[in-house]
Amino acid sequence: MSKIHSLTIMVLSDSVGGTASNVVHAALSQFPNVEYELKNFPFIREQSQLQTVLEKAKKFNAVILHTFVDTMFVDMIESFCFEQDITCIDVINPLIKEVTAQTNTMPQHKPGANHMLDDKYFDRISALEFAVKYDDGKDPKGFLEADIVVLGISRTSKTPLSIYMANQGYKVANLPLMPESSLPDELWQVDEKRIVGLTNEEEMLSNIRRERMISYGMNPETPYSSMERIRREIQFAEDLYNKLNCKIINVSSKSIEETSAIIIDSLNNH
Amino acid sequence: MSKIHSLTIMVLSDSVGGTASNVVHAALSQFPNVEYELKNFPFIREQSQLQTVLEKAKKFNAVILHTFVDTMFVDMIESFCFEQDITCIDVINPLIKEVTAQTNTMPQHKPGANHMLDDKYFDRISALEFAVKYDDGKDPKGFLEADIVVLGISRTSKTPLSIYMANQGYKVANLPLMPESSLPDELWQVDEKRIVGLTNEEEMLSNIRRERMISYGMNPETPYSSMERIRREIQFAEDLYNKLNCKIINVSSKSIEETSAIIIDSLNNH
């Protein structure tokens, strides 16, 4: 287990290369002992560009993932890789072929179609702006417009979660909870199904807050990081969640992606 | 071309299902005339759960995409789909198998490993918090800490771009440009390679701003949306970009993903 294997993975795309990069991150997370370099080659729109990149793949003995929608480019990669004995994985064409077959519809073969500036795109952009505008309880009027209202005490990842969900098109507002601060009236006007209360383990919060103090160059033993204080905050939050009858998520061992998937799953099943 | 074909696509995952969902969006963007429903089934960790979901796939005659890391689940899906004549596409195992072969290392078969709360995760969370904190020129001290400083006049997608790049781990601060406002001193201390100036077409800005006024219930013909005003703003911004000698990107027909890929590509090639 001590030896670290190393690998070069190249993502080739006629657009951003995001889809294939995600596949690389997901697959390689299963190999904590393998060191890999992910080289992204976006916006390849000319055969000469592709040829240059393929030569690089040969030089690095790389594994190739690609997401070309022009079949000429796909053929060019496949024959090069076959000749040079390089592995190439086609990330989107298996599904494109299946959809073609099932619907008897031809794909448009349009590079960058995944990033079209359509209504859905602009809704997502608005949602991102919304999340920033209504972050941190800045304006409780946002609660009435939001798809989801996230509540939580300090250091429960309210902001990153709100933004992550905004990037998926949801309008999210969040409110930090403190036993001392009064709650905005708007909160009681929100449908409980749209409210999510975040909580965390005492121990975890204490560690996070102590580290935060240290990063500020302060003594970690502040009232902010004391167990008694944290217990009081958690209790206050959980009492409120019960009063609101909202969904409660303990984020202690969850990433924002996981918390987000739980929230969306619960919204869809209501 | 008038007939709309419809299709159900199911994403099955032991984790969030984000990787496969991205593949679905990318592939289906090639079929503007195909209406599809994407049903996401995240966090499948029991065989009985999987069995229930597979029965649903049969009922909907769905195409399945999956990202299971436990081979028993993969086998279960594949034999079910073979028997029932359902198409299933394995999104991450082709690459997992290739990495196993090339590095002679076994994958850990750990669901959710892609969402480990490791240093990289917390760096990304910090970057998201950074982007919100230093959005809209709120505190120019952020420029000195940022990996990338984004400049732009109103409605050039500074905020969504900053957040999108933060989600990839970059610390991004942004500053809105207005001919009237003075520039913070910190701007001149930033390495020009880390500054990006956004610009846009006059026509496009005028339309966006007029629509913004209409959405506010105001007369669209304001100084804010007048061509003369917009021309002056663009000129002011471009003069500044030339003075700073920074990279300039015209975002008029680019999504934030595309703009982001251009910025990262240019950073990597410096």
UniProtKB/TrEMBL annotation, chains A, B:
List, alphabetically, the InterPro entries matched. Kinase-pyrophosphorylase, PPDK_reg
- Residues binding ADP are G152, I153, S154, R155, T156, S157, K158, T159
Keyword field:
Kinase, Nucleotide-binding, Serine/threonine-protein kinase, Transferase
Question: Which reaction equation describes what this protein catalyses?
Answer: N(tele)-phospho-L-histidyl/L-threonyl-[pyruvate, phosphate dikinase] + ADP = N(tele)-phospho-L-histidyl/O-phospho-L-threonyl-[pyruvate, phosphate dikinase] + AMP + H(+); N(tele)-phospho-L-histidyl/O-phospho-L-threonyl-[pyruvate, phosphate dikinase] + phosphate + H(+) = N(tele)-phospho-L-histidyl/L-threonyl-[pyruvate, phosphate dikinase] + diphosphate
GO terms of molecular function: ADP binding; ATP binding; phosphotransferase activity, phosphate group as acceptor; protein serine/threonine kinase activity
EC number(s) of the enzyme? 2.7.11.32, 2.7.4.27
Q: Which family does it belong to?
A: Belongs to the pyruvate, phosphate/water dikinase regulatory protein family. PDRP subfamily.
Record PANTHER family: PYRUVATE, PHOSPHATE DIKINASE REGULATORY PROTEIN 1, CHLOROPLASTIC
Name this polypeptide is given: Putative pyruvate, phosphate dikinase regulatory protein
Q: Which organism is it from?
A: Alkalibacterium gilvum
